[in-house]
Amino acid sequence: MSKPIAEYTPQVAIVTGAAKGIGRAIALRLASDGFKVVVNDRLAQEDALNALAVEIPSLGRDATEATASEEVRTLVVTGDVSVEADVDKLIRETVKVFGGVDAVIANAGIALGGVFLEYSMNDLDQVLAVNVRGVMLCFQRAARQMVKQKRGGRLIAASSMYGQRGVAYNQAYCASKFAVRGLCQSIARELMPYKITCNSYAPGCILTDMTDRPEDKMLDGQHGSFIKALIAGTHEGPDAGPDVVASMVSYLCKPEAYFVTGECMSMSGGLIIG
């Protein structure tokens, strides 16, 4: 009889879009949880990734252990998640350095808004390439490795409250985040026999560079006001920092989350209610 899925203890995690914001917070949290963490982003973000990598080695261990051990705890791999060769390299380098991959957090994403009647198909293609194709590629390549390892795995993708309720001027982004939810449900069903779970997370107004909009000044000037007004019809309402999302991802990576798969975990502070 095979071991219960609850006995699975992940050790190596890949985080895409890790240079800043939610991805950075997730990488730091997983490192604190004891993971060896591979951080990925575009080549243009290499300096930010290297700065993040400097912070990671001492996390999740006491000072004595951190000083005494020369064990590699983090790896920087740049690349575009929508490019097959780059994703293959990401998985290959992870396996080469850490011996395997146990969790992939497909956090990389872009948002290109605009008026529907004038929206560019080039912008649509760019958004779908990163937000949907990128998730598919990362999960497919990682899952192939996880199946070989025969120890289960965790696949976790960034959806959004925009993937639960459509809003004006964000057609491509909404479409991509709705797609992520369906993609994760389909993958979850297919990979159940391999003890690989697949879930998504749907943040609300998280205070990052992506939610800091010039339009905030038209309302009360507060960071996130425009985003909240789009989704809930009012600029008043809850917001939070990236650590809220990192905490949820941390849970989904834990052994006790073995029974959670095909789910979209909402963290909107109630903005999508009603």
From TrEMBL:
Keywords: NADP
Superkingdom: Eukaryota
Record GO terms (molecular function): oxidoreductase activity, acting on the CH-OH group of donors, NAD or NADP as acceptor; quinone binding
Name of this protein: NAD(P)-binding protein
Keyword Nucleotidyltransferase applies: no
InterPro entries, A to Z: NAD(P)-bd_dom_sf, Sc_DH/Rdtase_CS, SDR_fam
Entry keyword Aminoacyl-tRNA synthetase: no
Family, as annotated: Belongs to the short-chain dehydrogenases/reductases (SDR) family.
PROSITE patterns the record matches: ADH_SHORT
Biological process according to GO: fatty acid biosynthetic process
